[in-house]
Amino acid sequence: MESLPTMDVLFGFIVALGLGLLVGIERERRKGDGPDRSAAGVRSFTLVALMGALGMHLGLPVMLLAGAFVGLAALMSYVRASSEDPGLTTEIALLLTYLLGALSLSEPGLAAALGVAVAILLAGKSNLHRFAQILLTPQEIHDGLLLLASALIVLPLLPAGTIDPWGVLEIRKLWAIVVLIMAISAAGHVALRIFGARIGLPLAGFVGGFVSSAATIAAMGQRATREPARVDAAAAAGMAGSVTTTLLMSVLLASTSLALLRTVWPMLLAGTAVAAIATLWLARRARVSSVDPEASGGRPFDPIEALVFAGLLAAVLLISAGLKTWLGAHGIWIVAASAGLADVHAVTLSMGQLVASATISVDDARWALVLGFATNMVTKMVLARRAGSAYFNRLWPGHLAVLIAVCATAALM
């Protein structure tokens, strides 16, 4: 007596049935009526998915024979319909459904996920065509390809290792900063298209701040320079990046030194609250909030500005490393202040580790954090000033208020 199929096999067939129905229903809606309708609909796609699963279950020869039949059927369907519609979408979807049905037996989770993705892609035909043909400009396509080439081709080819006497400059990391600046600016551009300036840009700035708030301010400064009408929204995005600065400092201290976090959390909370209030105030000033593809055109980012920012960061890193070598461990506050010019999160990690190892006291580390935070504000304001007085004048009051809140709370502690 033959054994019954296992639950895994039954589950695989159920997944094949489900994804066949899902893709088939979407194709049925576009099948049309009458003698010119497409050849494959919900029943055909469901049967093809089950055929793929059954072929995989019965063995390779049966699977290859069934695959050849599906391929021949897809070819005949294309020949029949090519005079009316030269597209290959339905035929490709039919073959893909067969393969997904076969995959359902060995990787049902992956097959189900891919089936949903295929259905979403097929259902989004109109939106995708509109996005590619109307919304995207030639400049945006060019810059998107430039960003992908920078991240996926140039970055992996760059050599690892430092090139300076202090071991702080690495070409690959500096280029990663360039890619980061372009990516943050591009994210702001996409968010602007989807949500409008008042919501989209601050949202992009908030997310970008988790990577680098200084880079976020620089990227949004580029947009403020290119689109003066959106300077309030760009400034709100730059301010939103500073909200995440203090949030991330808290997370880093929680992972390195809870003792230091228990001491400095009031000043971090005060800085976060003031930065959030300033962000909301700037966002309310933003008047351009509608999603207007024509009004939000232009370049997603300026690669030259990204290179300039990376150069400034390299200079700051060299200065910080030189001061640290010159002053040694005795000048911990000065070292923290100089390192803060480049990245306050690096200062936060260093202070947390030094307190955890009992190298310095909690009070010394607290004031080192304040100094690093203050000098990082200087870097942000220098970057904001490079973007023009309008952008700078909207950012400096909020950042000054944040700095005062942090310093005052640290002093009261």
Tally of separate helices = 17
**Which regions are unreliable across 5 or more consecutive residues at pLDDT < 50?**
288-297
Helicity range: over 70%
Integer tally of domains? 2
The main pleated sheet reads as: none
Shape: elongated
Cα Rg = 28 Å
Which structural class matches the secondary elements?
A: mainly alpha
Number of strands: 0
Main features:
single chain, 413 residues, mainly alpha, 2 domains, 0% strand, elongated
Notes on the structure:
By secondary structure, the chain is mainly α. The chain has 2 domains: 7-123, no CATH class; 136-412, no CATH class. The chain has 17 helices and no strands. The protein has helices at residues 7-29, 42-58, 60-81, 89-106, 108-123, 125-135, 138-157, 171-195, 197-209, 213-226, 231-256, 258-285, 303-327, 332-340, 344-356, 362-386, 389-412.
How is the secondary structure organized here?
Elements: H1 7-29, H2 42-58, H3 60-81, H4 89-106, H5 108-123, H6 125-135, H7 138-157, H8 171-195, H9 197-209, H10 213-226, H11 231-256, H12 258-285, H13 303-327, H14 332-340, H15 344-356, H16 362-386, H17 389-412
Helix pairs in contact: 1-2, 1-4, 1-5, 2-3, 2-4, 3-4, 4-5, 7-8, 8-9, 8-10, 8-13, 9-10, 9-11, 10-11, 10-16, 11-12, 11-15, 11-17, 12-15, 12-16, 12-17, 13-14, 14-16, 15-16, 16-17
